[in-house]
Structures are given as C-alpha cells and as structure tokens.
C-alpha cells in the first residue's frame, strides 16, 4: 500500500513536533525571563535539543517568539490570491479581517497579556513585528500586481497595498493595545470590529473596483 501523498511522513511529524517543542519552551522562557535576557542555549536546554537544532528551525531569535511569522507575512497576499469570482481585493481583505476578529486570530494580534507584554518590553521584538508587517505589505503589492497583470509591481499597486495593509496594521495595533490593557478577547473583538468596518468603508470609493476577480 502506498502512502497518501497528503499524509505527513514520520520524519516530517517528528520535525514538526521538535519545532513545536522548541517554540513552546522559548515562549515560556521569554515570558518568564524577558526576551533579551534569554539565550538560545537556555531555549535548547529547556526543549531538550542541541543549540544547532534550535537555529536550524529558527534562524532568527525573534521568530522563536513569533512562530506564526510566515503566516503573518503571507496572509494578506494569500487572501487576495484566493478571492472569489466577482470579489475585489478590498472585499476579500475585509471579509478575512472581520472573520479573523470573530475567531480571535493570533495573526490579528490576539494573544495573552503576558505574550503582549513581552513584545512591548523588547525593542528587538517590536522591530521584528514592524518588519513582518512591512514584508506583508510588499507581498500584498505583488499579489495585487499579479491580479491586475502589472509587471513589474507599479506605483498604483504599491499605493493600494499601503492603504489596505494600513487597515490591517491598525486593527493589529488596537487589538494589541487592548490586550495589554487586560481586556478579554471577546470584548476586544466587539470593540474593534466597527472601527475596521468604517476603515474599509472609507476605502471603498478608491479601491472598491480595484483588482476584481473575473467571474
């Protein structure tokens, strides 16, 4: 019997488990000790692996904490690429953002207060978070260019990406701010949702008909 191509191999499962163990150990230590005071060697010891194993899975120390960094970068671009026939880029991003608020998506800033405080207290983590958002905006511009058949990425797609990514970034910042203040996730989602809706409504006149997927 041949193995289903979609079924992870034992090696892949072990690799995934090791990565998760490292990430969990790192998060615990970063929250307990502070990000800047925790070393890679301490993370390796806590996870029961070699230091090289940690760096093989996470070349950057900051990404030990932001273990969803790849998903954070590609989310906006993937949403545009997967938009439905007849749906604009703006409509797809609005739908995804509001659904993310409803499910308290970590990619929109939802976390525990200890996690948020660790980021707030570390300039390195704050800088990495800004970098991830910038990378996400660049990826979004490329997805928009692909959607409107514009190569290389031009001025219009860069401006559209900046405007659309700004809403997402503002939502993230507000969710994060309220998390730091100790608000419950359900209350945060309820408070932030109307602001997100208004922000997308204001962009409708400029971008409502931009990058609409052909039926």
Can you describe this structure in just a few lines?
This protein has 215 residues and is mainly alpha-helical.
Distance between the termini: 41 Å
Count of helix runs: 10
Strand content: under 5%
Assembly form of the protein? single chain
Spell out the helices and strands N to C.
HHHHHHHHHH
Percentage of residues assigned to helices: over 70%
What is the 3D shape? globular
CATH topology of the largest domain: Tetracycline Repressor, domain 2
Quickly name the level 1 CATH class of the largest domain. Mainly Alpha
What does this protein structure show overall?
Keywords: DNA-binding, Transcription, Transcription regulation. The protein contains 10 helices and no strands. With 215 residues, the chain is mainly α. It has 2 domains: 10-65, Arc Repressor Mutant, subunit A; 69-207, Tetracycline Repressor, domain 2 (Orthogonal Bundle). It is globular.
């Amino acid at each position: 019997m041949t193995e289903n191509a979609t079924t992870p191999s034992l090696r892949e499962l072990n690799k995934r488990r090791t990565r998760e163990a490292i990430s969990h150990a790192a998060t615990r230590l970063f929250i307990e000790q502070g990000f800047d005071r925790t070393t890679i060697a301490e993370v390796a010891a806590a996870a029961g692996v070699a230091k090289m194993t940690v760096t093989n899975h996470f070349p950057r120390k900051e990404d030990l904490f932001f273990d969803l960094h790849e998903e954070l970068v590609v989310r906006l671009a993937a949403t545009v690429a997967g938009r439905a026939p007849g749906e604009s880029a703006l409509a797809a991003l609005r739908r995804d953002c509001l659904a993310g608020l409803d499910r308290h998506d970590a990619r929109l800033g939802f976390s525990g207060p200890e996690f948020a405080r660790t980021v707030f207290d570390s300039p390195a983590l704050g800088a990495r978070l800004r970098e991830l958002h910038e990378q996400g905006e660049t990826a979004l511009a490329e997805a928009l260019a692909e959607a409107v058949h514009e190569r290389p990425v031009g001025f219009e797609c860069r401006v559209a990406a900046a405007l659309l990514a700004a809403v997402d970034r503002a939502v993230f910042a507000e969710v994060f701010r309220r998390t730091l203040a100790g608000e419950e996730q359900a209350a945060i989602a309820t408070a932030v949702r109307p602001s997100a809706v208004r922000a997308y409504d204001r962009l409708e006149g400029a971008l409502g008909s931009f990058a609409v997927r052909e039926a």
